[in-house]
Amino acid sequence: MGKRAKTPATGMVPSRPNVARVYDYLLGGKDNFAVDRIHGQRIAAAMPGIETGVRGQRALLGRVVRYLVGNAGIRQLLDIGAGLPTAENVHQIAQRVDPAARVVYVDNDPMVLSHAKAVLAENPLTAVADGDLRDPAGIIGHPVVRAHLDWSRPIGLLLSGVMHQITDYEQPARLTGELIDALPSGSDVFIHHLLDLGAPGAVQLKEFMTRAFGRAEFRTLDRVRELFCGLELVEPGLVSVRDWRPDGAPATGEDEQRGPGLGCAGVARKP
Fold it and tell me: For a tag site, which of 9, 120, 197, 239 has the least CB within 10 Å?
């Protein structure tokens, strides 16, 4: 898809930006529209270094997947709010570690679903399901999710960059709790969340996201920790993006006000 692409749902160029497509633009991708690029450019102009943060989040996801499959022994992953396929997708990373690893991507955006199905058509170990994080039962009971994953064995639940799109009114801890309750023992839960630092950068980004997407809920570390619903965090705990099991030097320009410093990450295991 390029600048002239149409959305599969309506056949029209959208008039509102989409989180996944703006994210794709900030990553340097091509699966976005003019409205997404405009908002991406505004965010980048107001917050120099935001592209570093987006790349840092993507690199974090890779580290988490390699940990889950390579160290924690997880062989099946459920990625909710997956977004558009890009370079180094979850299934690619997981299947490099173990070619038998299974992945289900869940999203509620028609463009994401259509694009993902086209990309993954020839990968029988990877599936795509239409689902909304605000409806955990619908995800857990989805025929594709039930058929593709073995619910008698541990599952890695990935919630990367999606929980801060859930408002307090929607009871985020209840949503994660329902998902966690359904997971088999020995499963792992990963959450990446943007932080309420009380700093100008965080306030500005939240304002941009709220205006563009209609929702954004940055939280403190303590409030993000509540989303794990009492599970025990694995080392190094709930930390900044760059501090979660780093595998190299930090990207140029990272600090606590820009880039990955705006986000935290953690993985917890279900007993």
Answer: 9
